[in-house]
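Researcher: I need the complex structure. Ligand is adenosine-5'-triphosphate. Inputs:
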Amino acid sequence: MALQALSEEVGYAAETIGLTKIYRTGTHEVYALRDVNLKIRRGEFLAVVGPSGSGKSTLLNLLGTLDKPTSGKIFIDGVDVSNLDGSRLARLRNEKIGFVFQAYNLVNRTSVLRNVELPAMVLGIPPAERRRKALELLRLMGLEDKAHRKPVELSGGEQQRVAIARALINDPALVLADEPTGNLDSKTGRSIFELLRRLCRERGATVVVVTHNLELAAMTDRIVHLRDGRIVREEVVEG
Ligand SMILES: Nc1ncnc2c1ncn2[C@@H]1O[C@H](COP(=O)(O)OP(=O)(O)OP(=O)(O)O)[C@@H](O)[C@H]1O
Ligand SMILES: [Mg+2]
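Model: Output:
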């Protein structure tokens, strides 16, 4: 309880304490994360970098409560998520967390607009309101003229922006993006990062982004370097 109060007081969007994740496959054990202590401020734009297999996606999945740690604690917005049951976790995810994955997981049967509206439908937001919000986000992404197209008719960069709009429809306090620019050209990648930065600056969102691209990572506030499941270095980006 004391930790929870403290976490709320200083306003961390997310905090991990001694976070450890071990994957057990047969007799084999993989330490995907070891004793990771990380405090992420509200409104911070944070990059997570590191070699393949260093634990970046594992960290993001744990922060997103999609997976459970082997040991250690995670606080989201001051709430100790290890104490929440499945349905409360699902609600917390839908209300507070926006996920952007490299595979956009867009539904090609329906329009771009409906794709963006989907998480708001799940929350039971009235149709007129969710439509207004979806259109506003598509405008922010420079995609208002594509609202009635099918995702499959859009370019990779445009689809990625649709996925970002969808991640933002419920005004998540925390946006988690796992290599959102992985298969985009460098100009589009840059514009996605500029957009994520604006989210932090203009909407007060907290954004954690995994990237292999150090040039893009330099556009964030802070870079956390992972290696073999540990934080080996942190850099505060100047300017
Ligand atoms: N479901 C799983 N079962 C067993 N081992 C896993 C599982 N998921 C990840 N691992 C292992 O945990 C370690 C960390 O994996 P993780 O996916 O977090 O790495 P990553 O930094 O995201 O790598 P990449 O840059 O390639 O995406 C790796 O050694 C990986 O093989
Ligand atoms: Mg990964």
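Model: Summary of the prediction. Residues 186-203 form the longest helix (18 residues).
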